[in-house]
Amino acid sequence: MSKSKRYLALDVLRGITISGMILVNTPGSWSYIYPPLRHAAWHGCTPTDLVFPFFLFVMGVSMFFSFAKYGDGLNQSSLLKIGKRGLLIFAIGLFLNSFPQWQMDFSKLRIMGVLQRIAVVYVFSSLIVLSFKQRGVIISSVLLVLVHWLALNLLGGEQPYSLEQNATIAFDKAILGENHLYKGFGLPFDPEGIFSSLSAIATVLSGYLVGLLIKNSDKARLPLKLVMYGGSLVVLGWLWSWVLPLNKPLWTGSYVAYTAGLAMLLLSLLVWLVDIKGYKKWTSFFVVFGMNPLFIFAFSILWIKIIARLIKFSFINGDAPEVMNGYTALYEKVFVPIAGNMNGSLLFALVHIVFFWLIGWVLYRNKIFIKV
Fold first, then answer.
1. Residue 307, class by beta-carbon neighbours within 10 Å (0-12 exposed, 13-18 middle, 19+ buried)?
2. Are 349 and 286 within 8 A, CB to CB?
3. Which pTM does this prediction carry?
4. Of 339, 365, 358, which Cα lies nearest the Cα of 300?
5. How far apart are CA 127 and CA 79, in angstroms?
6. Percent of the chain with pLDDT over 90
7. Are 246 and 252 within 8 A, CB to CB?
8. Looking at 116-125, 316-325, 330-339, which range is the least confident one?
9. Does residue 30 lie within any of the structural domains?
10. Residue 300 domain-assigned?
11. Is 354 contained in some domain?
12. 70, 131 in Cβ contact below 8 A?
């Protein structure tokens, strides 16, 4: 990105999404979470449901500028770099899913996940934006969400948007195998599976198109343009949700439009506040997260798995010892006495945000940027 087009707001938005990921993924107890920090049970969209699409949106914006070095076209160099990065991100996700590997039953290993979804949509969106001009990217985005909508209706059951009868289950079972799907919904259904990645690519492409808008817009006029496009997408997504519900696990087209629109609105606010008005002092916290986003996120998952699965503590409870993993012990013995169950659970997550920020700050101060 040229100096004149370099927007601090983009780094801030990226940092906000990473800190948001840590916040919603690291409560002290999953039994004590404030409603805005929970995903919608099925249909709907809470603040938590905005975090992941916002990250994919920012990834798309960054993709526009990073691909300029490839001449915006497919060639041997760009294909090699895209393939290597996609495989690396996917491999890290698989490593984290199976960690600790010596305790894993690989016949039941979940194949997909957040990082794997990022890898898949990164590769396919990269191929699209390097193959087509602006019009082709727009057409591809529209076709992706419409084809996904059509497939949900043709391949699903009588209630194609329900948990039990959606087309995602049969498709992902056939590709990945039932034993390798997420079971958190009470049945084999993966919210980051292959089928729903089809429409998730459109979220990345929306960010890419905003990158093009940034390049072709004066800084003073950019916030208004983002408000116009973002507001239109929010309204479109809301109206569309009357027939195609907002649904993050299915990553429905209405959800794509609604969340992309909200991401544009937030970016417009940040551009106006930070890059135009110059209120920058508060941004350094989020910029630290934004400089090593995937590394910090992956490390946060690894850390939680280490303290939850490898560290044990024994406490005397009456006449019998009580064994707790490190995660539970930290929450119940440190944070609950300080703030109670609900606030202690929130405080647990907030302290972890600060902990991972400190790691990011050390990297940032030493100009260490780990490209994942």
1. middle
2. no
3. 0.95
4. 358
5. 8
6. 89
7. yes
8. 316-325
9. no
10. yes
11. yes
12. no
